[in-house]
């Protein structure tokens, strides 16, 4: 718990839940009173304090030739999604969105692990609404955090000299395709995340259609800091997209790889069957031992742990998925953005051959070869 990864000047690691948390503060465990502190408020205070402290140093780090990097990962909106006390009574009338994929009516063309899910019951939907509200409530502390950080940067005089990236490491499904709460699929709900960038020269209010990935962040930060990433890095710098003349979309990434690995007792399962299975998501109590098991993703032996239970190719037009069971999914994302109609069994042979070839290339590549495979026709 007291480990501090190499390379960081200051380190504050969460050990605990939203309330009653313990922080690893540069190798020392510090407890915070749950009656007074919310984890994300503590992190916000640490971040703002760092900016204020170092801006007031002699000389301030802003005046040196070494750009600074702050990585701030919040607890929200992870389960049990406990909001800060000041936000507990907000958003009471908010409901979970019901897109066409929510509680999907006909899943007969889906893989078996999806077909195994019965339609969601009214009680299950009510629990999902509750979890959705709690997740939004917990994110209000993150909204406050962003405001605090911008205030600290503004007061230091460095807001307009700082790039700010706001993103997430994964998406989340909640009721789509009859699935419960999770993030282990190749469906759009799980693989799409927000990415908002503010900084010097970044046009205000622009929205780009380019495919960008989380593995682009490291080479981007290196590029903006004026250094080169290691040769083994797969991603690409986003810097060419951050000015008035971004790289044309046709000259950018055209496809990417999606994988989910099998872990012991940690893969998707059909949705919540009863209160005992959903209530822990709202309270933080231990989950039932088998709550995530499915026939598709379960690692039946130690040899399977860490191996992909699905591999998928995402392009501008298609999502192509191959499961370890031999099942497949193929969706036309232009005509079917909610992924309701699996085309695999009636797709042209030439299309399947091309998608298979592109998927194999991305699964076997590394570094520059991956960037080439993502862009090649």
TrEMBL record:
SUPFAM superfamilies: Alkaline phosphatase-like. It holds the Pfam family Sulfatase. Gene3D superfamilies: Alkaline Phosphatase, subunit A (3.40.720.10). Residues 103-113 have a biased composition (Basic and acidic residues). Residues 76-121 are annotated as: Disordered. Residues 31-226 form the Sulfatase N-terminal domain. This is Sulfatase.
């Amino acid at each position: 718990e007291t480990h501090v990864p190499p390379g960081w000047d200051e380190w504050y690691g969460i050990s605990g839940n939203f309330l009653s948390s313990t922080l690893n503060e540069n190798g020392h465990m510090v407890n915070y009173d749950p009656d007074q502190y919310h984890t994300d408020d503590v992190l916000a205070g640490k971040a703002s304090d760092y900016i204020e402290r170092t801006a007031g140093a002699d000389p301030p780090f802003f005046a040196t030739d070494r750009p600074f990097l702050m990585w701030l990962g919040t607890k929200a909106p992870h389960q049990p999604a406990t909001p800060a006390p000041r936000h507990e009574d907000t958003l009471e009338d908010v409901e979970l969105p019901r897109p066409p994929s929510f509680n999907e009516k006909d899943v007969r063309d889906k893989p078996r692990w999806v077909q195994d899910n019965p339609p969601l019951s009214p009680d299950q939907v009510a629990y999902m609404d509750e979890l959705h509200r709690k997740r939004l409530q917990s994110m209000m502390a993150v909204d406050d955090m962003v405001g605090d950080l911008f205030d600290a940067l503004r007061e230091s005089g460095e807001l307009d000299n700082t790039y700010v990236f706001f993103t997430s490491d994964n998406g989340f499904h909640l009721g789509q395709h009859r699935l419960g709460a999770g993030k282990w699929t190749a469906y759009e709900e799980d693989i799409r995340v927000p990415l908002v960038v503010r900084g010097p020269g970044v046009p205000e209010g622009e929205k780009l259609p380019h495919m960008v990935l989380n593995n682009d962040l490291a080479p981007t930060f290196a590029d903006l800091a004026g250094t080169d990433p290691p040769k083994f890095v797969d991603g690409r710098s986003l810097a060419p997209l951050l000015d008035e003349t971004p790289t044309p979309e046709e000259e950018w990434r055209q496809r990417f790889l999606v994988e989910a690995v099998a872990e012991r007792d940690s893969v998707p399962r059909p949705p919540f069957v009863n209160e005992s299975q959903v209530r822990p998501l709202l309270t933080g109590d231990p989950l039932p031992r088998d709550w995530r098991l499915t026939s598709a993703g379960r690692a039946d032996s130690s040899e399977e742990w860490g191996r992909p239970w699905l591999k998928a190719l995402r392009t501008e037009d298609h999502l192509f998925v191959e499961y370890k069971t031999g099942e497949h999914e193929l969706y036309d994302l232009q005509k079917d953005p909610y992924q309701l109609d699996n085309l695999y069994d009636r797709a042209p042979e030439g299309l399947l051959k091309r998608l298979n070839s592109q998927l194999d290339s991305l699964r076997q590549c590394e570094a520059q070869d991956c960037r080439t495979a993502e862009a090649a026709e």
